[in-house]
Amino acid sequence: MKKYHLNKSFLLLAVMLLSQSAWAIQKIQANPDEAVQIVASMTDANVISITGGSIESVWGTEDKVSLEANVDTGQAIFRPMSNKPFTLFVQSEAGMTYTLSVVPRSDIIGQVILLNEFDQAGETQSQRTHNIIAYKSDIKRLLKQIEQLPGHGIAKLRGFQIKTINKAIPLWVETKILHAHRWTRGSLIIDRYLLTNVSDKVLRVEEREFHNLAKHIRAISLRQLLLKPAETTVLYTFRSAS
Q1: CATH code: domain of residue 80
Q2: Fewest CB within a 10 Å sphere: which of 7, 58, 186, 197?
Q3: Cα separation of 83 and 104, whole Å?
Q4: Residue 42: inside a domain, yes or no?
Q5: Residue-by-residue pLDDT tens, the chain, 242 positions
Q6: pTM of the full predicted structure?
Q7: How many domains does the chain have?
Q8: What is the CATH number of the domain that holds 182?
């Protein structure tokens, strides 16, 4: 599991350089349900910024990028380490996660990636913020209902169809993941996974590391973040059907 840690000094330097250098701008309408392809310079630093918001964290699953971020400015700086394409995940302060498919190029200058998080599909910033808050409240309510019977059966949610899956999901050698159950209501899908530490060391996991379990994931909940060897916890994902 590759994690990128936040670093303040590098980004502050990069932001100062941003005002003094020539940069190319890529304006993108942010959509959490679609991966967006961008190009990035291999010779200069590249900046990711959110219009009308800020970045909470940025991470990738491959060792192909040098990545730094700063919560003070709400931006992130990255530089490809090879000419092979890779994926970056950008989580905004509003709680949305966006997928960037990065194509490195050695013949272009540094790029500024502007993600327009708001005004999507005609929504104003206040309307979209309201929808995000309402969605989070709905998720918390459903999760509370599901967790009322931990270890004592599977909760039945009003209006949802429930299906037993029992399918192993290969992700990391340190873990065993079983896709146990699925609840479906309209376009909302809730998946329940059992996550087991199969290594001989204590394993620390985070919600953001599981966004590639399925497409269109909008929220993730882990019952616990530290797992002893052979210990199992429960993981829930909330996603849209398309």
Answers
A1: 2.60.40
A2: 186
A3: 5
A4: yes
A5: 333 433 333 333 344 344 434 568 899 888 887 889 999 999 999 999 887 677 878 888 667 888 887 656 678 889 999 899 999 988 887 677 889 999 999 999 999 999 987 654 445 454 555 565 566 777 788 888 888 765 556 777 877 889 999 999 988 899 999 999 999 988 889 999 999 999 999 999 888 888 888 888 888 888 888 999 999 999 999 888 77
A6: 0.51
A7: 2
A8: 2.60.40.1240
